[in-house]
Amino acid sequence: MRISFLGAGSWGTALAVNVAKAGHEVILWSAVASEIELLRTEREHTERLKGVKLPDNIYIEDDIEKACTDMDLIVFSVASPFVRSVANQAAPFIKAGQKIVNVAKGIEESTLFTLSEVLNDVLPECDIAILSGPSHAEEVVKGVPTAVVVGAKSYETATFVQEIFMNDRFRVYISSDIVGIELGGSVKNVIALAAGMIDGLGLGDNTKAALMTRGLVEICRLGVAMGGRPETFSGLSGIGDLIVTCTSKHSRNNTAGCYIGKGYTTDEAMKEVKQVVEGVYCAKAVSLLAKKYNVDMPICEQISEVLFNNKAAVEALNDLFVREGKLEYSDIDW
What we know:
This protein is 50% helix and 12% strand. The chain is an alpha/beta fold. It is globular, with a radius of gyration of 20 Å.
């Protein structure tokens, strides 16, 4: 099949390599001239995935029309803040009924749309799916065994995407719960910032375990309020993605949070990471969604205070711990 990836960062490149090894013809597009030049001359993303050569059946492209014409599948692999702008660029060249899968994670702050909703807004006649789960590019590109989930409106589309991406080191499950998958993949980035702050403050495993557990509760509260299924949050795009993003050395959100815990400002931390820290872009949207759906999300609220109102991470932690005592689960009878 002919498959194009719109976005040649670490995640788009890793997935493109994964798909190319199955024998598909792959187009890898970027709007960044320096990135195009690097990939064409070195056949390697030396800045992000050093040591991994691109297979011969990956073609580097800077013309978005060519990247969107006569494709069996188009993969949106740009970072979440750029999904709408790239979709607008691509729209004139994308046919009605085109199968598209988005692999970024985030929520659009200006509209509070999930990324599949952004794509449906710009490309209403296309068939939009999503791919999410605990999957760092640095490991996927090396064939480290990984499992993810694809969400789609129809079983046929879900299995179509599943068959393209799945191999003996990349296992793909399918689900109809697009909302739950997207909320899990997005909000966990905010919790991962908090996990990094715990490391930056020099605290321990007890603190991080408490954060991850209660963070998952917040993710589930919001996801269910928005129409997601509770089961999804105990799956790959819920607790699975939360675990890997809160604990991995590859996590840019965790790394940025660690810098903030050490006293860096949000801008300083993002400059140190040198990649898009999607949890920062998502945090304001999560706070607004919590208010919109009347959902209690104290951890996410405190993270927003740290990120945008110069609150010290240690002060946010203290404020979380001195709240009044509560039931762990309010719907369990005494």
